[in-house]
Write a structure and sequence with these properties.
NDR1/HIN1-like protein 26, elongated, 22% helix, 209 residues, transmembrane helix, LEA_2, single chain, Immunoglobulin-like, membrane, transmembrane, 2 domains, 8-stranded antiparallel sheet, alpha+beta, 5-stranded antiparallel sheet
Length: 209
């Protein structure tokens, strides 16, 4: 009958093998490689230093506007221009939600824009159709609308919220929160509160990430 020899850790140490030292070397090599990779990513990020995308309202149209009622009924169609000013960084846009606010109060339902990728120094046109069918509003809204009608201007805020990811080569960053705030000024016809309004003057938006 042959003998079965099983080497214990103590036996390996007596023969010159140190299992703990070998594992420590492997862990040290792994963490060294990981640290170098992260340092390279940070270095590339600092060198490229991506600039925030720019948003502009190109056109805004309101149909069947009636803000005198306690409940709103109208539709708004927006055309937004988004630009990537970076020469070496692409942008992925995710979960973009658009809505319109008036005097700090949301007056339309949110509209979801499809996700898309924007290449370096590219621009894209985005369109959104927003509705306010039977949306309840504050009782003071009619008074504010009357003041705007007297002034001859209706000022609306367009909000875009979502996430973006930066793309450098094959590397894609984690998601960052994107908040865009645009101001649209429309000429208010003094004759009636029920009227189509349109604004075709470019309005640059503020962007925060």
């Amino acid at each position: 009958m042959s003998r079965v020899l099983i080497s214990s850790p103590e036996h390996c140490e007596r023969r010159g093998f140190n299992t703990d030292a070998r594992y420590k070397k492997l862990l040290f090599a792994f963490f060294t490689a990981l640290t170098l990779f992260l340092a390279l990513v940070v270095l590339v990020w600092l060198i490229l230093h991506p600039t925030k995308p720019q948003f502009t309202i190109k056109e805004a149209d309101i149909n069947q506007l009636n803000l005198s009622s306690p409940r709103l009924n109208y539709s708004i169609r927006l055309t937004l221009l988004t630009e990537n000013p970076n020469g070496k960084v692409g942008i992925y846009y995710d979960n973009l939600q658009v809505y319109v606010a008036y005097r700090g109060q949301q007056i339309t339902e949110e509209s979801t824009l499809p996700p898309f990728y924007q290449g370096q120094q590219h621009s894209d046109l985005l369109t959104a159709s927003l509705v306010g069918n039977g949306l309840p509003v504050a009782a003071s809204l009619s008074y504010q609308v009357g003041r705007d009608q007297t002034a001859g201007q209706l000022v609306l805020s367009v909000k875009v919220n979502g996430q973006l990811r930066w793309k450098v080569g094959t590397w894609v960053s984690r998601q960052y929160t994107l908040n865009v705030n645009c101001t649209v000024v429309m000429a208010f016809q003094p004759s009636a509160l029920v009227t189509p309004l349109s604004s075709k003057q470019g309005s640059r938006c503020s962007t925060s990430i």
